[in-house]
Please model this.
Amino acid sequence: MENVLRPLIVLGGSVVLTLLIGWAVDLLLRRADARHSETGLWGRLRRARVPFQFVLCVALLRGSYDQAQIAREYSADIGRILTLVLIGSTAWLIVGIATAIVETSYSRFANAHRDPARVRRVRTQVTLIQRVVSAVVGVVAVAAMLLTFPAMRAAGASLLASAGILGIVAGVAAQSTLANMFAGLQIAFGDMVRLGDTVVVDGEWGTVDEITLTFLTVRTWDERRITMPVSYFVSKPFENWSRGSAQMTGIVFFQLDHSAPVDAMREQLRDILRECPAWDGRDYGLAVTDSTPNTMEVRALVTAKDADDIWTVRVTVRERMIRWLTEEHPYALPRVNTADAALPPGHTNGQAPRPDRGRAHEPPPRTGPGRG
Model:
């Protein structure tokens, strides 16, 4: 009977104690979240209750397994398995706690600052910091698991002895990977590009959707995803429309006939912008910027608070201005002139009149007597 009750008490007690402690901790976190809901930290820490209970249960089983006296001939192997599980679940718990702290810090900063550029910069930094912490914790956990095996501990000395050669080989083999990692850190803390920035890369216009230590993803306007190594953004030029201030100035060009009513177009542009919610009201203008033998180029200048709104303003102005010209001033639209050219005064059929060389001024011939 003792051989049956002992394992049940040890295993069942560990599970019951884990559930009770987990319930008590979760209750405390809920009460703390209700009292301090403005921080959000306690609510995010509740997400880590599963790895916490897992760590607690495995730790209790690892500490009380010898008392259960189950499968004594495999006790060493079972103990090592429990140790490996404990290391892995501990790493899981650390990553969950770190994620909760990082997300809380970002949320408090975003609520306290209204500058979108600064918020995107901090978001990029905390995202990469979170990834670095997760990677470091994962590497340390794997190393700790490997060191639980005696063979790996014995091989440690030889690994340290050849660390110099291995470092050189690894550096040469992973040169591009290391370059991307350092470029990712440079982007995060150098404020070159941030999550949510509007960029133009290789002629593609889009928004930065994801930044990691090795690659960056740009989401284009048609929902495509362009994935590029982060080293591209530290070695080649690119356009960042969100750098500094998000406010933008847009241009709309019109190719019109020389008879187009420019003054009336200025008034119509003002009316169009007043009815366009995307226009921020900062500035507008219309001017003739170029002329050809057949048309003239008219430029409309508009402003908006960000890249999305400037696109909306430009297409609205282009559409409504062309419609207005078509309905009110159709003669202003470009056309092919098939009429004959107007001739200067005194020209006939494109040829200048030839002089009569003075014959009209000669006296008439004489026909009187003596000339017969």
User: Anything to note?
Assistant: The first helix runs from residue 2 to 35. The chain is about 55% helix and 15% strand. The longest strand covers residues 279-291.
